[in-house]
């Protein structure tokens, strides 16, 4: 308890799913919370007041929270979200960019509005909410802040039928690496979560495969398993950890590899001939395949009791 005492946390998309669990978890650790949620459908259409319900839940448990129901996909929404934290609590320390939607289609069927809507909520949404916070950190010289962004295996590994979502989620990983560099001098860490949880976003995908989602599945695979890791990253204990991607799902927490050079050949002089590349690139590819095997082996979870 009280790992976040005195901190002000803003959580986007916190009306349900993973965001709601993060808001409840951070409030239980003493943070004052701004619960943002537009309250719409999974495809981004519609609105609702679900953020107010989470605020009530936090207050009933003895915590402090206010709601914000504007879309974070617009610069004005990101600005007013930041302002809500300042007006309600006088400061801001933690930003969790969690809000999200889906418009899954193969590229053959993906219309411009499906592309734009998903990029706007995920990738632009990260910009809209992070920029006012970053400016505030710099202008007030505020130290020890935390930004926790939400990517996905869809963008980091690739997933059929999600070119818009995968592009946004890969972009978020790149965004996080850059912002981590830009805010390092203020002691602000910027990390990325790749979650796996049964929520309204993923349950229909399971059901479409003919798999039933029972209560026991929700116990072992629900969004409550993601929140403690996000809360820990927001705490003092995580001050040395930045620009990392953690994959969190069903009681497992893993650290992801980041892009890095693995093996190289260098030409002494001149430019590569096609015959030389016939030799070098297959060797590079072989080195990559061998490294992949070693990485898969190393990633097997170690059981903690
Ligand atoms: N559930 C998973 O397995 C999984 C996997 C990979 C990534 N993610 C990511 O985790 C995050 C949370 O997903 P979830 O599974 O809890 O989904 P969810 O649909 O349960 O919750 C997302 C919330 O974001 C809100 N939201 C959407 N657009 C918004 C906007 N413009 N402004 C404000 N709020 C908005 C929604 O109203 C909703 O309450 C998302 O970024 C998602 O892409 C989830």
CATH top level label of the largest domain: Alpha Beta
- Roughly how many Å is the radius of gyration? 21 Å
CATH architecture of the largest domain: 3-Layer(aba) Sandwich
The helicity comes to: 40-55%
- Structural class by SSE content: alpha/beta
How far apart lie the N and C ends? 20 Å
Globally, the shape reads globular
Q: Which hetero ligands occur in this complex?
A: nicotinamide-adenine-dinucleotide
Characterize the largest beta sheet: strand count, sense, and whether it forms a barrel: 8 strands, mixed
Q: What ranges have pLDDT less than 50 throughout 5 or more consecutive residues?
A: none
Largest sheet: spatial strand order: 3-2-1-4-5-6-7-8
Strand content: 5-15%
In CATH terms, the superfamily of the largest domain is NAD(P)-binding Rossmann-like Domain
Number of helices: 10
Number of domain modules: 2
User: Residue-averaged pLDDT, rounded?
Assistant: 98
In N-to-C order, the SSE pattern is: EHEHEHEHEHHEHHHEEH
Kindly state the number of beta strands.
8
Task: Walk me through what this model shows.
The protein is of the alpha/beta class. It folds into two domains: 8-255, Rossmann fold; 261-305. The protein has helices spanning 17-28, 50-60, 75-89, 112-140, 153-156, 163-183, 203-208, 215-221, 227-234, 274-298, and strands at 8-11, 32-36, 65-68, 94-97, 146-150, 189-196, 245-249, 252-255. An eight-stranded mixed sheet has the order 3-2-1-4-5-6-7-8, sandwiched between helices. α3 packs parallel to α4 (112-140). It is globular. The mean pLDDT is 98. The structure holds nicotinamide-adenine-dinucleotide. Nicotinamide-adenine-dinucleotide (NAD) binds at residues 12-13, 15-19, 36-40, 42, 44, 71-73, 98-101, 121, 150, 152, 195-197, 199-202, 223.
